[in-house]
TrEMBL record:
It is found in: Membrane. Its main location: membrane. InterPro entries: HAMP_dom, HATPase_C_sf, TCS_sensor_his_kinase. PANTHER family: SENSOR HISTIDINE KINASE TRCS, SENSOR HISTIDINE KINASE YKOH. The chain crosses the membrane at residues 22-40, 181-201. Keywords: Kinase, Membrane, Phosphoprotein, Transferase, Transmembrane, Transmembrane helix, Two-component regulatory system. It comes from the Bacteria. This is histidine kinase. Residues 202-256 form the HAMP domain. It catalyses: ATP + protein L-histidine = ADP + protein N-phospho-L-histidine. PROSITE patterns: HAMP. Its EC number is 2.7.13.3.
Length: 465
């Protein structure tokens, strides 16, 4: 099982992606609006084509009905003697539109003008469908020309009829042309909206960008820094900078309180430890000597925490040393503390690293002490990987329960394990946070346990003498 303590939050921002999200959502809304507008326009225009066709057909049928009832033969000034003559005169007086067809039907034969814009042929599907249909009107779906609206008006008492057909292909083509023009205009509007959204989003997020830029220039490892508040900036930027500074002040206040408490606790522990050591020396009591040793460990932990600060800011205890010397120094001090450790992997170059070596050594000592409680000897290792200095302590062959290991690495105290090692392993997390790195542990029962630190402490500075 692997338990990795979360890294401190990275110092990256989502300013760019947030701005892009604003633009994307704005464009999505505009695109949806334009699509709905285009579809609605298409529906309205096509409905207009259909209504216009119906009105033309109705008008022609009404005109023919009126002419059949009231019309006179221009040659005799009398009512028409034959239906054929009626159709001949009526058709001669009509000027059909470019999408209309007016056809007289006499004994199955078609009668129409020679210059008809839409001539019909006997037997074609449109004519057959209209004449064979019992309904006086309808719509024929032409495979090439689309819907064709038609109507028939019979001359009373005869087999003669007038066939009116209104084609809609030209109207539909006009609608398609209009929609293409609207789509091109909409695309231009969409591009304009994208540019406008980008500018507006930038203006809206400008206070965040300014404060972010100013905050990025701060050294997070220094106490008491503030974001400069612009004297003549806009109100949003000034308010945001002041709010950010208020948060920094609260962090510094908490840091000061933390340091004060630890300093007082260190003084009290040191005084208590001196009394215990004196009593142990006077009485020779082995129990008091064990308490003194445990007290010394706790005091060392408190001293290390005092040299660290809240908010990933190491103290003046940081030194710059060669990476190859870190492993040897840690091994030497842990052996001096009586821990059964051996350095089995070390860095073999003089890459400079800046770290609080005392705190790191104490943290690795707690890791080695935990591993030694499982099995010995304990192996130490120091490596450079992913531009970070990695230190680890490992025992082979025993391992432990992952749940217990997780509890030991947690900040919160565990009532079931109140002994010093409970605070000891948590020290790894404090050291990792203070150096902007991470603490981690891995344990498999029957195989072993590894506990370590990954610290991004590589530097280009000079090694301290």
């Amino acid at each position: 099982m692997l338990k990795e303590i979360p890294d401190p939050p990275a110092r990256h921002t989502a300013f760019g992606s947030f701005r892009k999200r604003i633009v994307v959502w704005f464009l999505a809304l505009v695109t949806l609006t334009l699509v709905v507008l285009i579809l609605t326009t298409r529906t309205v225009l096509l409905s207009g084509v259909t209504d216009g066709a119906n009105e033309d057909v109705t008008q022609e049928t009404e005109e023919f009905t009126t002419f059949a009832a009231e019309g006179r033969d221009p040659e005799t000034s009398e009512p028409f003697e034959t239906p054929e003559r009626l159709l001949q005169v009526y058709l001669a007086r009509q000027i059909p539109g470019p999408d209309e067809a007016l056809v007289g039907v006499v004994d199955g034969q078609l009668m129409q003008m020679a210059n008809s814009p839409r001539p019909l042929q006997a037997g074609e599907p449109l004519v057959a469908a209209a004449l064979e249909n019992r309904a006086p009107s309808g719509v024929f779906d032409h495979p090439d020309l689309g819907p064709v609206h038609w109507a028939t008006v019979s001359v009373e008492g005869t087999d003669t009829a007038l066939l009116v057909a209104r084609f809609t292909d030209s109207g539909r083509a006009g609608v398609s042309a209009n929609l293409r023009a609207i789509s091109i205009i909409s695309l231009g509007a969409l591009l304009l909206a994208a540019g406008l959204a980008w500018v507006v989003a930038g203006r809206l997020l400008d206070p965040v960008r300014q404060v972010r830029t100013a905050a990025a220039g701060l050294d997070s490892r220094r106490h008491g820094q503030r974001v400069p508040v612009p004297e003549h900036g806009d109100a949003d930027t000034i308010d945001l900078a002041r709010t950010f500074n208020t948060l920094l002040e609260r962090i510094d206040t908490a840091d000061d309180a933390y340091q004060g408490i630890l300093s007082r606790l260190e003084v009290q522990l040191r005084s208590w430890l001196d009394r215990i050591r004196q009593r142990a020396a006077d009485t020779g009591d082995a129990t008091l000597r064990a308490e003194a040793e445990e007290g010394a460990r706790v005091l060392a932990t408190v001293t290390a925490l005092t040299s660290l600060t809240v908010g990933s800011r190491p103290s003046d205890a940081a030194v710059t040393v060669a990476a190859e010397s870190v492993g040897r120094d840690v091994e030497k001090q842990l052996i001096a503390a009586g821990l059964p450790v051996a350095l089995v992997s070390n860095v073999h170059d003089a890459t400079p690293v800046t770290l609080n070596l005392d705190a790191v050594t104490l943290a690795m000592g707690e890791a080695a002490r935990f591993c030694a409680g499982l099995s010995t000897p304990v192996e130490l290792g120091v490596e450079i990987k992913d531009d970070a200095l990695s230190l680890w302590a490992r025992e082979r062959g025993v391992g432990c329960d992952s749940g217990r290991l997780n509890q030991l690495l947690d900040w919160r105290p565990d009532a079931s394990h109140p002994e010093g090692q409970q605070a000891g392993l948590a020290l790894l997390r404090a050291v990792a946070d203070a150096h902007g790195g991470s603490a981690w542990a891995q344990s498999t029962r029957g195989l072993g346990t590894v506990i370590g630190l990954d610290l991004p402490v590589l530097t280009t500075g000079e090694v301290d003498s």
